[in-house]
Amino acid sequence: MNSLWYFNDVNLFNILCPHKFKKYKKSHEFDAYKKQDYIYFEEDSANKVYLIDKGKVKLGYYTEDGEEVVKSILSKGELFGEKAILGEEKRNEFAQSVDNSTSICPIAVDTMHDLMRDNQTFTLKIYKFIGFRIKKLERRLQLLLFKDTKTRLLEFLKELCEEHGYECPETGDHVVKHPYTQKDIASLIGTSRPTLNIIMNELKEENIIDFNRKEIRFIG
Fold first, then answer.
1. 16-60: per-residue pLDDT in tens?
2. Which of 18, 146, 168, 175 has a CA 20 to 30 Å removed from the CA of 89?
3. 3-state SS string over the chain?
């Protein structure tokens, strides 16, 4: 199954971080963030892209009513703010640290363009990543338009399991430890929190999953 919310099996930090390149290594620094610290806000100038060294970052926006909508939660090795490479001048989303020890590698757009011009492998990885993000958004839109809420939730949970799950040797269950709140999950699959609660409890009664605040377990 192709990943909908994650860039499969590619640690972009190991490939793209400027400290890997001699020309930029000395002047390159990392930024540290605590939980709920903002990396950037909507309408901020889009003059950098960011790689996650460690921790997790939430991307989202606020509706006119001030309600938070989560677009994705990214983890180590992933890139965000990439639309700045394509000429975006202002952010249309916020980026916020989810962990207490998030480390971010900021890269100026000019530096990114230099790296892309001087390194073909680097450029191909960037284009592959941007193309994947576009396909991911298309796939997510198809799910939101044509699949019912229960199906969207099951597909999300299965992909979460593929990315972050492990098999419990004692029971054979597949266990996923995750950073999402129920509000985050509801936002990601395009439903309300009360509807999500109902469906999660239905799946629990059907003995498909069990769950608590930080863990989802696929039974058997």
1. 665 665 665 566 678 999 999 999 999 999 999 998 988 989 999
2. 18
3. CCCCCCCCCCCHHHHHCHHHCHHHHCCCCCEEECCCCEEECCCCECCEEEEEEECCEEEEEECCCCCEEEEEEECCCCEECHHHHHCCCECCCEEEECCCCEEEEEEEHHHHHHHHHHCHHHHHHHHHHHHHHHHHHHHHHHHHHHCCHHHHHHHHHHHHHHHHEEECCCCCCEEEECCCCHHHHHHHHCCCHHHHHHHHHHHHHCCCEEECCCEEEECC
Residue with tokens 């099951």: 154
Tokens 């640290």 belong to 97
C-alpha torsion 206→211→216→217, nearest 10 = -50
pLDDT band, very low/low/confident/very high, at 137 (cuts 50, 70, 90): confident
CATH class of domain segment(s) 12-141: mainly beta
For the chain, what are the domain ranges? 12-141, 147-218
Which of residues 17 and 73 earns the better pLDDT score? 73
CATH number for region 147-218: 1.10.10.10
What is d(CA 219, CA 171) in angstroms, rounded to the nearest whole number?
A: 8
Phi/psi of residue 59, nearest 5 degrees: -110, 140
The closest alpha carbon to 75, from 51, 92, 91, belongs to 51
The per-residue pLDDT for 25 is 58
More confident residue, 146 or 196: 196
